[in-house]
C-alpha cells in the first residue's frame, strides 16, 4: 500500500469499498467513483498539513488512533459512531471546517455522479480508513518504530515544532524540500543525537530506517489516481481557503 488509492482498495480485506457501497446505499461502481473523486483532496490536504510541525503532529496522532486502525480492518467499526466521530475529527485536522468539507463534496460529486450530501456523509469513514491504512502500511513495511518515535516526540514539550526550533511559530510552512525536508530535519533530530534544532537533511539520510520512513510517508500521501486539470484546479482553490487562513 503505497498511496491513498492503494490503502482504500486494500481496506477490510479488499472489501472496504463494497462495504461502503452497502453502508451508503450505492452500487460498488458508484462507491468507487465517489471515493476516487475525493482522493485528490485528501492527498493535497494531508500534504498541506504535513508541511508544518503542528499539522504533522495532528496527522501522526490520527495514525496512532486505535479506532482508525480498527476501521481499516473491520467494517462494523468503520460504521460505528466512534469511527464517524474520529473520522470527522480527522476531516477537521485536514480541511479546517465543515464548510470546506461540504465544498469539496459538492465539487467532487460532479465527477462522481452521486449526491453531494451522500459524499459528504462518506468522508468521515474514508478519512478513518485512510488513517488506519497508513498505520498498517507503516507497520507492514517494518517502520512502526519510526512512527512511534515521531508520536513520542510530538508529546514532548514544544512538540515537533520545538525540535525544529519553531516552537514560537508552529504554523510556519516547511522550508524548501516539502514533506521530505521537514521529516528529514525531524527524524535527523530523533535519530541523530536529539538535537533541539533541525538536523541537516543529509544527517537524516544516513539512517536507512529514516530514509525508508520518509519515503513511505511521502508516498502514502500521494493520491494514486488520475485527475483532470479542471477538477484539480477546483479542489486546489477550495483548499486554499484553509491554508490562507493558517
Amino acid at each position: 500500500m503505497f498511496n491513498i488509492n492503494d490503502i482504500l482498495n486494500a481496506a477490510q480485506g479488499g472489501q472496504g469499498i463494497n462495504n461502503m457501497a452497502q453502508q451508503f446505499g450505492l452500487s460498488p461502481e458508484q462507491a468507487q467513483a465517489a471515493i476516487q473523486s475525493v482522493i485528490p483532496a485528501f492527498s493535497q490536504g494531508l500534504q498541506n498539513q504535513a508541511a508544518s510541525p503542528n499539522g504533522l503532529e495532528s496527522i501522526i496522532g490520527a495514525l496512532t488512533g486505535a479506532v482508525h486502525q480498527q476501521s481499516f480492518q473491520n467494517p462494523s467499526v468503520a460504521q460505528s459512531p466512534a469511527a464517524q466521530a474520529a473520522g470527522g475529527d480527522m476531516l477537521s485536522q485536514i480541511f479546517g471546517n465543515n464548510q470546506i468539507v461540504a465544498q469539496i463534496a459538492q465539487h467532487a460529486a460532479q465527477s462522481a455522479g452521486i449526491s453531494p450530501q451522500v459524499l459528504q456523509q462518506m468522508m468521515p469513514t474514508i478519512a478513518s480508513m485512510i488513517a488506519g491504512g497508513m498505520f498498517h502500511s507503516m507497520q507492514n513495511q517494518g517502520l512502526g518504530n519510526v512512527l512511534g518515535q515521531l508520536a513520542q516526540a510530538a508529546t514532548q514539550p514544544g512538540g515537533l515544532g520545538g525540535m525544529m526550533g519553531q516552537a514560537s511559530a508552529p504554523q510556519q510552512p516547511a522550508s524548501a524540500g516539502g514533506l521530505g525536508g521537514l521529516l528529514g530535519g525531524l527524524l535527523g533530530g530523533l535519530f541523530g543525537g536529539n538535537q533541539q534544532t533541525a538536523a541537516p537533511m543529509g544527517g537524516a539520510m544516513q539512517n536507512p530506517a529514516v530514509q525508508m520512513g520518509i519515503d513511505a510517508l511521502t508516498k502514502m500521501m500521494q493520491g494514486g489516481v488520475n485527475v483532470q486539470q479542471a477538477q484539480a484546479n477546483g479542489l486546489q482553490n477550495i483548499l486554499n481557503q484553509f491554508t490562507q487562513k493558517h
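The CA atoms of residues 18 and 28 lie 5 Å apart. Residues 116-140 form the longest helix (25 residues).
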